[in-house]
Design goal:
Length: about 700
Amino acid sequence: MPAKFLKILFYITAPLLLIVVISMTLLFTYDWNQARPFINRTVSSSIGRDFAVRGDLKIQLISGSQTESGWERYLTTLPILRISADDVQISNPSWSHVGAQMASARRVVVLLKPFALLSKEAIVTELDLDTPLVVLERRADGSNSWSLPDNGPSTWAVQIQRLAFADGNMRYVDYGINLDLHARATSVAGDALAAPDQTKNALTAQQFGLQFILGGTYHHAAISGSGKLGSVLTLENKSTVFPIQADMQIGANKIAFNGVITDPRAPSGINVELTLGGTSLAALYPLTGVLLPETAAYKTRGRLLGQKEHANWNWTYQNFIGTVGASDLAGTLQYVYRLPRPLLRGAVTSNQLRLDDLGPIIGADSNEHKIARGEAPIQPDGKALPVEQFHTAQWGALDADVKFSGKHLIRTHDIPLDNIVTDIHLENKVLSLAPLYFGLAGGDVTSNIVLDGRKPAIDAQIKMAARNLQLRELFPTLQSMKASFGEINGDAALTGHGNSVSAMLASSNGELVATMSQGSVSRYILEAAGLNVANVLFVKMFGDKQVRLNCLVSDFAVNAGVAGVRHFVIDTDDAIVNITGEVDLSRELLNLDVRPNTKGMRIFSLRSPLYAKGSFEHPDVGPYKGPLVLRATAAIALAALSPPAAALASVNLGTTPIIDCPAELNKALRTRSAPKSEPTASPAGRVSNKEIQKSREEK
């Protein structure tokens, strides 16, 4: 029985073995170059464009895996099928404008497992490209040259474990983003350059095997650069890392990175040291899609971490340091993909923040600085308020939640600021700084600002609270104010419409109220305001004494961009000063009258009303000449009759009414407690005492 069974088994298997032997003999002895026309036609028909193997075509059976080195290759005893083809070409679609060929190579070598083919699996252990040329093109409508016709679901599975390539060229043209990038790669002699070592938790990164040179244009800006990368992509293990290093310039932006890509077959992680530099952070928007403000020239360095979740990437620029203008920056920012908009979040700190470097954010930098950034000058001569437009169309690119703090402000215009803290929020094109806190003149100013960019013109609203501003620190360069003291407190609410600071203020409405009590002020300042010539001379000769300041109340109502004085009075032991008039924020004009009334008798007082007129850019402050000339003329006429009589024209008897400071302050406090302005769809919240206290603690 056993002999009969073996005999039957032999009759069954012998023909099969014979077929296998004959097939293998034909496979490796057949001149496959004779089959090239058939192969070319079949592949061309399948992919819908011309495919051609124009050189020698060979198929061999080799032992051991050619993808392993040393003793490891002998552990693999199963045979490997080696297919080599010379001069391989794949054409571009007919609509292409970048040449006839999409891809070509001097030689293509494919190593695959033959027995896996029986189960319709093409397991390519190595794909080796010699001198490849790849030209990829993407049209503005999103269609591209590398997508092949859909011939329905395939019953075959393809797996590529390793990809190796030597010298080659690549070009990528994308009309949607106006990019034309080309790169040339050449082998690094000896493969001697070491790769980065920051991936100790993964497999050891291979050495650099290729060096490349970049060129091209992006939005008509020149691209140039160079770098290095590995020559072999190991695609079998998810922990595989692929080294890459580059240093390039795109227009005014300089970019350098050095690190690794995890799992190159479907990149899931990136870990590189990234250095950025350029004329303005805003110039990064076309490159990154991250909305950043206009700034002075910048340079940063930090670690860029990329993590892929499903089909989307999350990015972290970790522990970066750098400069913007003369200011330093440090922090961490995260770009998180989410719907309906990605989120930018993090914290940025500046230890030395120069005020001039904040100017471009609101368009307040000079035309000279704009020219230095390669931008056309915008600010008209004689215009003080910034006219540069906010580009709200980009505000919908992402949401933001970023905390910014400037610990020490470097002043360039004698503005007594000392620090700044703000929470920046952007959601659905509504930008808010809530709160925005900065130290001013020994006190602090806390604001809630909302800019709603959902309409063609921004709806802007600010609510502000100023607390404990020191009188003498408001005028740090004025010697006569050194000994003055007193605290100013104020509140304001303004609403405006427009896409620049100038337009917002020109259309603004609201209220501004400030008060001060229990202070003192320089007698010289007071006497100069009253033009008491004799006392001014006396003070100059014998010293300046302080005069008690009983109260100050300043109350403005803003309507259609005109800030009118509702009530403005300063009461001291020696004088009362009343101010009337208006400030036109639209035309940037001053029109204020300052009328000092001295208490008691002043000898040689040529007291006359003062004015503050002119433009913001060129203000004109001084005494009204008419009353002063009449008073001086009267003194001269009386002197002709009797010298003692001339003094009568220069004596102020002081009949000024008494000011009830407690009543004035209480009335102003009621307005300060809830200043009003036009409502908006995205209102700014009233500044609370809790916000003020929190901001003080965070500074």
